[in-house]
């Protein structure tokens, strides 16, 4: 408390100027009582992590992301597959939303009806605790989702608020008529323009509007209410006590609203997160925060505490920029835009880390800024439109098989759905029984993942990519999912197919071995510790991505990745890698005189002491 309480006091005083001090007093009591009943094993974990605050930054950290039901039926089922994950070098398991959702349509679990219950189809809170225990025994961590921006309309708080209970009205944002909603709408964006247009929903029984950024059944919480702050912190503590290591804070940018803004990334959001982080650092320091903020590149680093002065905010955050740029470069065969954009992405504190990913359960939103596009002489809108068409498989010469998600004719914006395998060309090559193209498609997938395994932070492997699982259209038969094509890339694990990873010559053996090798190589390279710096270099060849990692103790690392369709040649000395040792080389050779030749989709991992 000595170390963190001033931040808590300052945060609460700024966020809740009208509070008479009872919020601070209540939190103080909550934290004290909590520390007293923190399970012993977790208290030991707290102490260990206070002594080693960089525990989530090591090169051995590799995440796996899946839905418990699609991966293994239940939480207990997931515990039975931990050896499979260890084969891939996984140290961090992110299970998608698993708290009890509303019945029926629930946005893939992101409409939570009870934060203190596990979805009964997946198991119980005690199963969650056991799973965390099994992971910890294997030196693995557990990450779960905590939706902080909204609850389901069926959550107890929302039900009470809707019934008019004055103690709960303040937890949501209600409006008697369109006056304020219309004023807010002038500057708000639309997340789901197709199936949930607008940001407010009409409640006919109440004759009033309620703020719903996402679907009409997802009610935005009013974080300006001290009750929301207190209750949500209580939820965090409860989950931390099940042994959860990382809380993925879903839709964090939307937590505060102000008229005349897009109501994302407001300073109060950062104040909320730093205050919650400080409280957790007192009550359950073993638990890290991961920001789910899929926002403009300049808005990303502040979630990791970047700024003057640096703050302890979230420990991890999604590197949405890298993900988008990887797909952009794969389509264009050019690394110049990626180079420029990554060079503009601000630095993050050495105490934080990105999570880097190729695919996730969501669509790909083509976040290419006007300035970044202009830096290579392109227009952002036409480049985004090209990417949309390319990955929908509609552009001449495209190898991809994806789908358009939430096309908005008013803005010309659309996003992309599809599995990594299908977007890389594996689905088409399999359909055509074309082995040459299949190998090319696998090389594309490897190139993308090889960058995420080496770029600063923790890589996330999205379930199924290790086996090349393609788009799955079975969701079309389920009315609660049919209009949301993100289900295309949320397949069920195919354990029979997974068995083929042991059969040489199969696609599954090829890809699985590749992921295992990437993980093993990464874990052995100390310079990949996330506390070191990543610097993207201007490469002598625009088809090449080139970045350097430097760590004060562990030495340095250089990656060269060829996004071009032809061979690229570069003198290692020209990219600061003269005399460096080859750690991993795929589709590349280095001659004795220090010249690297990389064929299309080839890459090199190099280290120097
Ligand atoms: C998240 O994504 C989840 O990942 C989605 O699966 C949910 O539908 C959504 O929240 C609602 O809970 O708009 O396209 O800046 O971009 O919260 C994905 C963050 C999303 C948002 C993000 C959201």
What would a concise description of this structure say?
The chain is α/β, with parallel strands linked by helices and 609 residues long.
Your description of this structure?
This protein has 609 residues and is of the alpha/beta class. 34% of the residues lie in helices and 20% in strands. The strands form six sheets. The protein has an eight-stranded parallel β-barrel, surrounded by four helices. A hairpin with a 4-residue loop joins β16 (403-408) and β17 (413-417). α1 runs antiparallel to α12. The mean pLDDT is 97. The structure holds 3-O-alpha-D-glucopyranosyl-D-fructose. The site of 3-O-alpha-D-glucopyranosyl-D-fructose has 16 residues, from loops. 3-O-alpha-D-glucopyranosyl-D-fructose is lined by residues 107-108, 110, 147, 191, 214, 250-251, 253, 292-295, 361-363.
């Amino acid at each position: 408390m000595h170390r963190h309480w001033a931040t808590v006091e300052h945060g609460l005083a700024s966020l809740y100027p009208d509070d008479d001090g009872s919020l601070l007093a209540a939190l103080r009591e909550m934290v004290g009582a909590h520390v007293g009943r923190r399970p012993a094993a977790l208290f030991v974990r707290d102490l260990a992590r206070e002594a080693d605050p960089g525990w989530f930054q090591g090169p051995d950290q590799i995440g796996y992301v899946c839905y418990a039901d699609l991966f293994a039926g239940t939480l207990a089922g997931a515990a039975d597959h931990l050896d499979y994950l260890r084969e891939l070098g996984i140290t961090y398991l992110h299970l998608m939303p698993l708290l009890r959702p509303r019945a029926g349509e629930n946005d893939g679990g992101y409409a939570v009806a009870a934060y203190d219950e596990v979805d009964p189809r997946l198991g119980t809170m005690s199963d969650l605790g056991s799973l965390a225990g099994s992971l910890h025994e294997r030196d693995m961590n557990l990450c779960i989702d905590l939706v902080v921006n909204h609850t389901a309309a069926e959550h107890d708080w929302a039900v009470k608020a809707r019934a008019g209970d004055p103690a709960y009205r303040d937890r949501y944002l209600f409006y008697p008529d369109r006056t304020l909603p219309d004023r807010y709408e002038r500057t708000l964006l639309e997340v789901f323009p197709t199936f949930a247009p607008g940001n407010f929903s009409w409640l006919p029984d109440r004759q009033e509007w309620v703020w719903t950024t996402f679907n009409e059944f997802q009610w935005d919480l009013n974080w300006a209410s001290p009750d929301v702050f207190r209750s949500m912190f209580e939820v965090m503590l409860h989950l931390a006590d099940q042994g959860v290591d990382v809380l993925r804070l879903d839709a964090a940018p939307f937590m505060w609203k102000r008229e005349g803004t897009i109501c994302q990334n407001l300073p109060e959001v950062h104040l909320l997160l730093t205050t919650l982080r400080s409280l957790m650092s007192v009550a359950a320091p073993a638990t890290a925060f991961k920001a789910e903020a899929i926002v403009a590149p300049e808005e990303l680093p502040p979630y990791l505490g970047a700024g003057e002065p640096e703050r302890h905010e979230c420990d991890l955050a999604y590197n949405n920029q890298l993900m988008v740029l990887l797909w952009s470069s794969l389509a264009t065969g050019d690394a110049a835009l990626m180079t420029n954009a990554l060079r503009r992405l601000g630095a993050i504190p050495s105490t934080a880390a990105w999570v880097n990913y190729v695919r996730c359960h969501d669509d790909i939103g083509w976040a290419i800024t006007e300035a970044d596009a202009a830096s290579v002489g392109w227009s952002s809108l036409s480049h985004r439109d090209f990417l949309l068409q390319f990955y929908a498989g509609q552009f001449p010469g495209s190898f991809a098989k994806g789908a358009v998600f939430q096309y908005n004719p008013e803005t010309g914006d659309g996003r992309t759905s599809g599995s990594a395998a299908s977007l890389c060309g594996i689905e088409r090559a399999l359909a055509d029984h074309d082995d040459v193209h299949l190998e090319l498609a696998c090389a594309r997938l490897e190139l993308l993942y090889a960058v995420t395994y080496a770029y600063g932070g923790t890589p996330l492997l999205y379930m199924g990519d290790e086996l090349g699982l393609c788009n799955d259209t079975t969701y079309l038969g389920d009315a609660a999912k049919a209009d949301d094509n993100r289900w295309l890339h949320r397949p069920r694990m195919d354990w029979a197919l997974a068995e083929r990873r042991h059969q040489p010559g199969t696609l599954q053996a090829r890809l699985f071995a590749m992921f295992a090798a990437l993980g093993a190589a990464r874990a052995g390279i100390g310079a990949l510790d996330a506390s070191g710096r990543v610097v993207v270099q201007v490469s002598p060849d625009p088809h090449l991505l080139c970045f350097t990692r430097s760590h004060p103790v562990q030495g340095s690392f250089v990656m060269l990745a060829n996004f071009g369709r032809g061979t690229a040649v570069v003198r290692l000395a020209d990219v600061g890698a003269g005399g460096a040792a080859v750690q991993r080389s795929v589709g590349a050779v280095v001659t004795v005189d220090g010249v690297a030749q990389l064929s299309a989709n080839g890459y090199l991992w190099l280290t120097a002491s």
